[in-house]
């Protein structure tokens, strides 16, 4: 999506360790005009996929997931992160390794949020090594629901997550796909 790529080039900041900071327009301060265009793009990509629900993970996936849910007219669920293993019953739970914080979280969804009738679109802000999406797919599977596909704002193609899910036959759509980032701030997109 050209508009998102241009904004990343203008306002994104490359941090050491292959992290792209987009807090000034995407996941701290949010440019709602850009967000609405991104949501329309997700809705258009998945318009014929029979999506009944969107699942994301707190906190940074929620904005795009909610906007896409409104654009598609479907409900949104966000998985909650807990640092402890002390999780009540009546939930589906899995473990996700945070790429940015280098920490493991229990990730939890109440078991009445999704069921076998659901065809779930999974949304997140970034796809790097795939731990967050792996956890969300696990939660969908535990609920007996099916995965319609994945949509992310930014996929870093130089990390392994995208290849892993595509090799499993999961549809992955990325609104911006970065092929390379250098420590001096150069960002290259896949053509
Ligand atoms: P993964 O689980 O695919 O390794 O990493 C995806 C998760 O880590 C996303 O939920 C996102 O919050 C965070 N993340 C991964 N890479 C980046 C990045 O370059 N910038 C930001 N802001 N977050 C990232």
What radius of gyration results from the CA coordinates? Answer: 16 Å
CATH architecture: 3-Layer(aba) Sandwich
For the termini, the CA-CA separation is 11 Å
> Which secondary-structure class do the elements indicate?
alpha/beta
What does the average pLDDT come to?
95
Fraction of residues in β-strands = 35-45%
Count of helical regions: 5
Number of domains: 1
Question: CATH first level: which class?
Answer: Alpha Beta
CATH fold-level name: Rossmann fold
Lateral arrangement of strands in the main beta sheet = 5-6-4-3-7-8-9-10
Shape assignment: globular
Highlighted features:
191 residues; binds guanosine-5'-monophosphate; alpha/beta; two-stranded antiparallel sheet; 5 helices
Structure description:
The mean pLDDT is 95. The protein has a single domain, classed as 3-Layer(aba) Sandwich (Rossmann fold). β1 (13-15) and β2 (19-21) form a beta hairpin. The chain is built from five helices and ten strands. It starts with a helix and ends with a strand. It is α/β, with parallel strands linked by helices. Residues 19-22, 60, 99-100, 124-132, 161 line the site of guanosine-5'-monophosphate.
